[in-house]
Design goal:
By secondary structure, the protein is of the alpha+beta class. The chain has a single domain, classed as Jelly Rolls (Sandwich), CATH 2.60.120.460. It is 22% helix and 36% strand. It contains 3 helices and 8 strands; from the N terminus they run E-E-H-E-E-H-H-E-E-E-E. The chain has a 5-stranded antiparallel beta sheet with strand order 1-8-3-5-6, with helices on one face. Strands 2-7-4 form a 3-stranded antiparallel beta sheet. The N and C termini lie close together (5 Å).
Length: 147
């Protein structure tokens, strides 16, 4: 069995923006030379997630609205109380409890089948990388396993 790994980097433009990474994923698979196996795609972040769905503008707006309803930014989160919180603090820490609560509803990794050198996707399926927090650089790792 062969393995190929690649880290993809993205400059995300802000809260609830997304990047369609499907074509880049296909390119990574082709470069790997692996024809049959599995592709695992993993976000390196707790407030950026992967979604396998349609890249249709009205649906994207529905997804964003749904995420806002499930974890609105305008309520209190313990995670945002910097007078009490002492764990996992950074110099540029921001109030992002809402982003973490959105993230628990979405996968941080997705595994797809690879058959005959082709990523197996349904007619409308696209792999979308969603930023749930703020503008920043993000990383996704792609691992291709197989023959």
């Amino acid at each position: 069995m062969k393995t190929s790994n690649k880290i993809l980097e993205y400059q995300m433009e802000g809260k609830l923006c997304f990047e369609d990474i499907t074509e880049e994923l296909k390119k990574v698979v082709k470069e790997s030379g692996i024809k049959n196996g599995l592709i695992n795609v993993q976000s390196f972040h707790t407030t950026a997630s992967l979604i396998l769905n349609e890249n249709e503008p009205l649906l994207i707006e529905d997804i964003k609205a749904n995420l806002e309803k499930t974890a609105p930014e305008d309520i209190e989160y313990n995670h945002d109380n910097f007078e009490v919180r002492t764990v996992n603090m950074c110099d540029d820490e921001c109030a992002n409890g809402h982003s973490h609560c959105k993230a628990i509803r979405l996968p941080s990794s997705i595994t797809l089948n690879l058959v005959g050198g082709e990523v197996q996707l349904g007619q409308w399926q696209r792999l979308l990388f969603f930023e749930l927090d703020r503008k920043r650089k993000r990383k996704v790792q792609v691992q291709v396993l197989g023959e």
